[in-house]
Design goal:
The structure holds 3 protein chains of 3 kinds. Chain A is built from 11 helices and 14 strands. Chain A is α/β, with parallel strands linked by helices. Chain A starts with a helix and ends with a strand. Helices cover about 70% and strands about 0% of the residues of chain B. In chain B, the strands form 2 sheets. Chain B has a two-stranded antiparallel ribbon. In chain B, strands 3-4 form a two-stranded antiparallel sheet. The longest helix of chain C has about 30 residues. Chain C has one domain. Chain C is globular. Classes of the chains: A alpha/beta, B mainly alpha, C mainly alpha. Chains in contact: A-B, A-C, B-C.
Chain lengths: ~375, ~475, ~325
């Protein structure tokens, strides 16, 4: 309130802080070998909880919490989740990474969700022998061996792009397509190679671009020529793909929308006719998955979800299984946990058993293409 | 009651100033002012220099470096906003420009590695000139239009960054090389901390000297009354441009050391959220005061870090609440009285609600700090107010939130000081309820809500922030 | 010359432009009276969109509405207008009125704070998922005009008609009623108006109410025609709305309408032709650049806009 008072108060606090820090020297940060944590273990969730991709990070966090609660109930464990909001910014991701590395109770990282956060943080995780299991980072070069403790549950762009290109070229027999990206690192990493793939097959490609926050595509649609048969939309916002397909119909265009895996969402992407790729059999309609969906709905009070949640569930399960194994003898280190993650072989709700390659990719991952008719999903390939 | 009419100062203003000057706190402030500025700077820089010695955790070192970068940004923004009163909403674009320019001079992508002692000054100049050019648009415009033009400039800058191939778009450029001074590379966190500290000291010294010079005085005159300044033959346009240029230059330097610390640049770093955060720092600390914005930056960045997790967040929230109450309520006994009354009210309400319907107090809060467990004993915790993600399940949570805002706003309308103090009790209780039920469940969002609310409250009640000088506007 | 494409772009531009015009009107009115740039105006639009969505859900949702479609839409618009009107009044009362005598920069910073607060509050209360109006279930995409190259969805027609109706209503209010006269007087010279017995505070409150109500309506219209809403959609509309107000002449109602249409058409056409124009070097992502350049051009060459009068400051 009064300038001098405040200045004095701040000076007192500052000196107190320095003195306290000086007197109570914190112990050395957790090196890879030590950290025997088996009683108060947390999983560090690194993803965008605010910002333009918040819908993604929040869905993942929700499914992760569900996984933790279910695992705890079934195994009598007491795992917890620590939230690390990256705001979709690499420097923030780095700070979060350092925070989690310094936090002794964190034995595994779930994420980072976005590829640029992996670049920013995975090096720090590697130095601490901390396993990072990502549920949605799809850039191909993340598993080229540069991050030895990085794993991912979902296949990368190098698998999705050829699958989509092949389907559009051979099954849909397109001769002229439009490829739209949404100006983020996920979509640009897909749109570029996809365009090249199409052109290599002699298919005509027009390139368009929208911001991730755009909700109106009418002018882009006006640009779509009449002989275009497929509009490939690399997006993570499923409702945007829906709007795009409706606006195409509105303007009488014949083209159908092909959404990349981010568009997969039976609740939000319901065109009259369209396609979407996904890296898992349809969780919503797989009879085996119905039970778990029921459980999730009960847990989350019927929160809608798309492709982002279930992989986070699996990532959490992988981590918890590995930590439980490492803690079988009462104590564990982060390096031990990472070793067990590498040896993972557990059943998955999104496909076959989860096993990792030497470089951290999930084994046997494929992309499936789904055809959507009047909102109903069916496997197309 | 003025002892002597002062020449050139309006009588009412002089009386107001003298009333204020007689208080204890103001005298303390005067004492502080008497300390030579170099010593004052040393008093701040020395403890900071000892920070790496006492702190081992890499996380805290990173936070320290981040804070210093924020301080630099706040100092740069202070030039245009605090000293000249121009609203520059495109400020973070200069920060980004500095970062990308450094990348162009020292990265594998660009294929060269300039030494930092050449790169940084060059970047400062280039970004300063850019600021100058942007400032040219302000010549014809009122301050308000300038704000929008600068905001648009930021948007365009982002669009270009994201969509040009030479900036590698949203993927950014991740091969930025470390700072190299006279052949020696800076590779450790401690090293970068010291570099940031040195840059901070240099920037503060330069800004202080400019502020004391003729230019600084001209800026202040310009801020107080642009028309009068122009009539006094001050080159108003040139002064505005210089302010823009200096602010931009400082931001550019901050960007130039930010890029090598991160090792990469991405467009997403330089967005509106960052802009508003820096504004909050400047406003909280006191626009126009070098010490103020420094303190503001430290406080806000520390708070943002503390508000990351539900464990730490509650300590900060309740701590700030209690301190504000103790400081703002006069006489001295009202603060503790209100706090005690709130707790008593809470206990009663908790009991009563529990009797009426058990589900009203049966829920659990996300907050995990010890203080949360304490508070939870007397706060209403209805079951199922939020989903496990922290989203309100239905109307109750949302209505409670809106009701709380309305209650706070309504309280500001109460005129009688006594009734206002009385009304504080239920409002504080409601605040604790909303915090325990809604805000602590989504700490990442809650901190931004609090920053927005803080900005509005500060401008309404204490626009000079903590250390700024209260400006008297003669209408 | 691809006439189909041009016609379609014009239709899009008209739709966008109507929305921008509504936003610009609110900006213009507030600026005319208070000389204040309401940076939170775009977020008022966003809140309106969410109120409309809430009403939609409350009345059964798009698949199974419990009232007739047109009545439903009318209620959504009305609800958003009322809600946002009161929100605008509250913002004025608590964020701007205490700062009437403060330096010009103060209410702008306060507006930034309000904007940030609104966005994040909505994020807190409703979550990050984009919410959908599912208008395509409400009114099928085939309903509308299909005549030659013209393919106009009924909802688009509704947006333009509603916007024009509201603008007409506003124009009548400002030119034919006593309140309108009071508003014009206050905008012209606040002190003189007070001396003439006009309750300036009440006029300001009513101005904010009307301006914010228009923004709220625009929010619902945006939700209807583009289908999705999220907590940061307000920012973009605020920016474009402001540009429209400045281009048309800030403080002028016909100016805001014209400016809105101008900017909407400019944006639509630039998406359509920017690539041809720059021979492939710039793509549709740069549409905002075009709007920005228009703004800067007007600022530098004709700061009073198309319909405004050059401002002469009396010293």
């Amino acid at each position: 309130m009064r300038r001098g008072l405040i200045a004095a108060a701040v000076a007192v606090f500052a000196s107190a802080a320095v003195v306290t820090a000086a007197v109570a020297r914190p112990t050395q940060p957790a090196a890879a070998e030590q950290v025997a944590e088996c009683t108060n273990v947390s999983l560090g969730d690194v993803g965008p909880l605010t910002g333009p991709a918040a819908f993604l990070g929040n869905e993942q966090l929700s499914w992760l919490k569900f996984a933790v609660s279910k695992y705890n109930k079934e195994n009598g464990t007491k795992f917890k989740v620590a939230q690390g909001d990256t705001q979709l910014k690499a420097p923030v991701a780095r700070t979060v990474a350092r925070k989690f590395v310094a936090d002794k109770s964190i034995m595994a990282i779930i994420g980072p969700s976005e590829s640029q956060a992996v670049i920013a943080g995975a090096g720090l995780f590697e130095k601490a022998a901390l396993a990072a299991v990502s549920e949605s980072a799809t850039r191909v070069d993340l598993t080229n061996g540069q991050f030895k403790t990085f794993f991912r549950i979902i296949p990368h762009d190098g698998i999705q792009v050829p699958t989509v290109v092949r389907f559009v070229a051979e099954k849909l027999k397109a001769k002229h397509v439009v490829v739209i990206d949404s100006q983020d690192d996920y979509s640009k990493a897909i749109a570029g190679p996809m365009t090249r793939g199409f052109r290599a097959r002699g298919i005509d490609v027009d390139r368009e671009s929208v911001a991730a926050t755009d909700t109106d595509f009418s002018s882009i649609v006006a640009n779509v020529a009449n002989d275009v048969s497929v509009v490939v939309f690399a997006t993570q916002v499923a409702s945007g793909a829906n709007t795009l397909s409706q606006q195409l119909r509105e303007q009488g265009k014949k083209a159908v929308v092909f959404g990349t895996d981010g568009a997969y969402s039976p609740a939000e992407y319901k065109p009259k006719l369209g396609y979407v790729s996904a890296f898992a059999p349809d969780l919503h309609f797989d009879p085996k998955a119905r039970a778990i969906i029921r459980e999730y709905n009960a847990f989350s009070k019927n929160r809608t979800f798309g492709t982002f949640g279930p992989p986070a569930y699996m990532a959490g399960w992988v981590a918890m299984t590995a930590i439980t194994k490492a803690c079988a003898d009462g104590k564990a280190t982060r390096a031990e946990v990472t070793k067990f993650v590498r040896q993972t072989n557990i059943p998955s709700i999104i496909g076959d058993n989860i096993r990792f390659t030497a470089k951290g990719d999930v084994r046997g991952a494929t992309f499936a293409v789904f055809k959507v008719t009047n909102g109903k999903y069916s496997v197309a390939s | 009651m003025a002892e002597q009419p002062r020449i050139g100062v309006d009588e009412w203003v002089a009386q107001a100033e003298e009333r204020r000057a007689r208080t204890v706190a103001a005298r303390l402030g005067d004492l502080l002012d008497r300390v030579p500025p170099a010593l004052r700077l040393l008093a701040i820089a020395l403890p900071l220099a000892l920070y790496p010695v006492f702190v081992d955790s890499e996380y805290l070192m990173q936070v320290g470096i981040d804070t210093l970068i924020f301080v630099l940004l706040a100092l740069g923004l202070n030039v245009a906003v605090g000293w000249v009163g121009l609203l520059d909403l495109g400020f973070v674009a200069f920060f980004g420009l500095g970062a990308y320019l450094y990348t162009a001079l020292a990265s594998e992508y660009a294929g060269r590695h300039w030494d930092a002692q050449f790169a940084i000054p060059l970047i400062a100049v280039v970004v300063g000139v850019t600021g100058f050019v942007l400032g040219l648009t302000s010549k014809r415009l009122l301050g308000d239009y300038l704000a929008i033009v600068t905001l648009f400039f930021l948007q365009i800058y982002l669009v270009i960054l994201i969509n040009s191939s030479f900036t590698r778009g949203p993927n950014g450029i991740s091969s930025v090389l470390p700072l190299e001074f006279f052949g020696k590379q800076v590779t450790s966190l401690d090293g970068y901390f010291y570099v940031s500290l040195v840059v901070f000291v240099v920037v503060v010294a330069v800004l202080y000297l400019i502020n004391q010079s003729r230019t600084g005085r001209a800026w202040r005159a310009l801020r107080e009354d642009e028309l009068a300044a122009e009539l006094m033959t001050m080159p108003v346009d040139r002064l505005k441009l210089m302010a823009f240029a200096f602010g931009a230059g400082v931001a550019g330097v901050a960007g130039a050391i930010f890029a090598p610390i991160q090792g990469a640049v991405f467009p997403a770093n330089f967005d509106i959220v960052l802009l508003i955060t820096v504004y909050a720092m400047v406003v909280l600390g006191g626009a126009g005061s070098l010490l103020g914005v420094t303190v503001g930056a430290v406080l806000i960045n520390a708070s943002l870090e503390a508000l990351r997790s539900p464990e730490d967040a509650s300590w900060l929230f309740y701590g700030v609440l209690v301190v504000t109450l103790l400081v703002m309520l006069r006489p001295w006994w009202r603060g503790p009285a209100v706090i005690a009354a709130t707790i008593a009210f809470g206990v009663v309400a908790h009991e009563a609600a529990g009797q009426v319907r058990a589900s009203l107090v049966g829920g659990t809060s996300f907050g995990e700090a010890r203080i949360d467990h304490l508070v939870d004993t007397w706060v209403l915790l209805p079951e199922n107010v939020v989903t496990p993600d922290g989203l309100p399940t239905g109307a109750l949570g949302r209505l409670a939130y809106i009701g709380f805002i309305a209650a706070v706003l309504g309280l500001t309308l109460v005129r009688s000081s006594l009734w206002r103090t009385v009304g504080l009790v239920p409002v504080l209780y409601l605040a604790a309820c909303v915090w325990e039920n809604l805000l602590v469940a989504q700490p990442a969002v809650a901190r931004f809500v609090l920053i927005g609310a803080m900005l509005v409250a500060l401008m309404a009640f204490r626009p000079q922030g903590l250390f700024g000088k209260q400006r008297v506007e003669i209408v | 010359m691809d006439w189909d494409k041009l016609v379609q772009l014009l239709v899009n531009g008209l739709t966008l432009g109507s929305v921008y015009a509504l936003v610009a009107l609110g900006f213009s009115m507030v600026y005319g009276i208070l000389k204040l740039l309401n940076l939170a105006h775009g977020d008022v639009l966003m809140v309106g969109a969410f109120i409309g969505w809430g009403i939609l859900g409350w009345l059964g949702g798009a698949q199974d509405p419990s009232v007739a479609v047109w009545l439903l839409i009318g209620l959504m618009v009305l609800g958003a207008m009322v809600g946002c009107g009161f929100l605008g009044v509250a913002i004025e009362r608590f964020a701007y009125r205490p700062l009437r005598r403060a330096p010009r920069i103060a209410p702008l910073i306060s507006a930034l704070g309000v904007s940030f607060f609104l966005q994040n509050s909505v994020l807190l209360l409703f979550g990050a998922n984009f919410r959908s109006y599912e208008t395509f279930d409400l009114v099928d995409v085939e309903v509308g005009i299909h005549w030659g190259p013209l393919n106009v969805w009924a909802i688009r027609i509704m947006v333009v008609v509603a916007a024009v109706a509201m603008m007409l209503g506003l124009w009548l209010l400002v030119t034919r009623t006593r309140l309108g006269k009071a508003m014009r007087a206050t905008a012209f010279d606040r002190e003189a108006a007070a001396m003439m017995g006009i309750d300036v505070d009440r006029v300001i409150v009513k101005t904010f109410f009307i301006g914010s109500a228009l923004a709220g309506a625009a929010g619902v219209l945006v939700g209807l025609v583009f289908g999705q809403i999220n907590h940061f959609m307000g920012f973009n509309y605020g920016l474009k709305g402001f540009t429209a107000a400045v281009v048309g002449g800030i403080g002028s109602i016909p100016g805001a309408m014209f400016g809105g249409l101008f900017i909407g058409l400019a944006e639509a056409l630039s998406v359509g032709y920017i690539e041809d124009f720059t021979r492939g070097r710039l793509g549709s992502a740069f549409k905002d650049l075009v709007v920005f350049l228009i703004l800067v051009l007007f600022m530098l060459l004709r700061p009073q806009g198309i319909f405004g009068r050059p401002e002469v400051k009396k010293v």
